[in-house]
Amino acid sequence: SLAPLAAYWQDQVAQNKLSRDHLPQAVLSWLQAVTYDRTGGLTDISTPWQTLKTAAGDCDSRSLVYLGLMEQLGFPGILMVSAVYSHGMAALDLPGQGARFPFDGKGWLVAELTDQVTLGMIAGDKADPNQWIGVDLWGKP
Q1: Average pLDDT over the chain, rounded to whole?
Q2: How far is CA 11 from the centre of its chain?
Q3: DSSP-assigned letters across all residues of 36-71
């Protein structure tokens, strides 16, 4: 469970150290600082707690931590995966400027976890929405 970490971020808002509107970007920036690490095995995804414990993870692993935290903090999100780009990202149902990924009737604001960029920023060589698949981790079956 990411509940203790979510409680930390909620406390930051409660103590007026951070506004709720800036929470998704603050958590994104924090996770972007995690060391990028791929094991190169059959699957190199790690659990959110493994990623946090080692302060290292690949794009998918970081995205899972981010989406788990955002869900607990009340910001719906989806996982974006691309076989063409061999990459994974998160996307949130938020207002704001930047690149959006169409999924389930909404335009989801992208969240790149492997580079120090703001919400909505995506590398031009990975920006074709037709090369991504959206995954709703908490949706209805």
Answers
A1: 89
A2: 20
A3: E----SS-----HHHHHHHTEE-HHHHHHHHHHHHH
Q: Based on the number of CB atoms within 10 Å of its own CB, is 44 exposed (0-12), middle (13-18) or buried (19 or more)?
A: middle
Query: Quick check: helix, strand or coil at residue 131?
Result: helix
State mean pLDDT over 69-88.
95
Is residue 120 within 8 A of residue 96, CB to CB? The reply is yes
Q: Which residues contact 18 (CB under 8 A, 6 or more apart)?
A: 9, 12, 26
- Structural Rg of the chain based on CA atoms: 14
Asked whether the beta carbons of 35 and 56 are under 8 A apart, the reply is: yes
Q: How many whole angstroms from its chain centre is CA 128?
A: 18
Torsion angles phi and psi, residue 90, rounded to 5: -110, 165
Q: Which two tokens stand for residue 141?
A: 């079956």
pLDDT for residue 49 is more than 70: no
Mean pLDDT along residues 93-97? 94
Q: Give the span between the Cα atoms of 133 and 25, in whole angstroms.
A: 23
